[in-house]
Specification:
This protein is mainly β. It has helices at about 55-60, 150-155, 215-220; strands at about 45-50, 85-90, 100, 105-115, 115-120, 125, 135-140, 175-185, 185-195, 205, 210-215, 230. It contains three helices and twelve strands. The strands form two sheets. It has a ten-stranded mixed sheet. A two-stranded parallel ribbon has the order 6-10.
């Protein structure tokens, strides 16, 4: 993936604030490094209950052949088991359905109520590119088009072929599902997106966007309507 150190602009409405190409290739990780913004903070920490077994993880993170672009199984041997999806105790004043991102611990929580939350392992912004505060899901997309920011194209000319947008697909950095984060009616340039890179989970590689394994992202997406509150904690 191309690693872009530039900043996106508000005109790049299809750009994730960029999910990093191996040399010479335009892939998912390159798009993850770019701009960062600053917001305010809020939330409480969670503690894990019993985790998912390896056999269950193989099922949960198995192939999803019915998708428009069939999703392969995750190589779960490349994911620390602490990042498998699970239900945990999580005390918070936030309403059920709220999404809370904990970049310091590489987790995303969906509040379920009664002191419980669904917890997902995530990749997050790299040092110097993390942000925190309140936002909301302004729009959602399945197999979204990705458009590189103009600043990225200047720094990474090989991205220019996607200046009019990269169609959805397995190689698209936004993956199978995308939640676009807004504040006060404006797109923040940050997203929660689907990652097909299991080795990225539990690491800081992005420009502030948050990635979940595709199977986890579909699970979260299906339960998250537009206008859902999102709280990003300080790292």
């Amino acid at each position: 993936m191309i690693i872009d150190g530039g900043n996106a602009t508000t005109g790049d409405m299809n750009a994730a604030a960029s999910p990093g190409l191996r040399p010479g290739l335009l892939g998912r990780r390159s798009f993850l490094v770019g701009s960062a913004a600053s917001l305010g903070a809020l939330g409480l920490a969670g503690c894990a209950s019993d985790g998912m077994s390896f056999a269950e993880a193989q099922r949960v993170y198995g192939p999803v052949p019915e998708e428009k672009f069939p999703i392969p199984a995750v190589d779960i041997s490349k994911v620390d088991p602490k990042y498998y999806r699970r239900t945990v105790r999580y005390e918070t004043r936030e309403e059920p359905g709220t999404i809370i991102v904990d970049p310091g611990n590489y987790y995303v929580y969906r509040i379920e109520g009664d002191g419980n939350a669904t917890r997902y392992g995530a990749n997050v912004g790299r040092d110097g590119f993390r942000w925190s505060g309140d936002a909301y899901v302004g729009r959602k997309a399945e197999w979204a088009t990705w458009t590189p920011p103009r600043e990225m194209i200047k720094r990474q000319p090989e991205a220019a072929k996607y200046a009019r947008g990269m169609p959805g697909g397995l190689d698209n950095p936004l993956g199978a599902r995308t939640l676009y984060l807004y504040q006060n009616g404006a797109y923040t340039l940050y997203t929660i997106y689907a990652s097909s890179d299991p080795e990225s989970i539990g690491s800081g590689i992005t420009s502030g966007c948050v990635g979940l394994l595709s199977q986890d992202m579909i699970h979260l997406y299906d339960r998250t309507p537009v206008k859902t509150k999102v709280v990003v904690l300080p790292a």
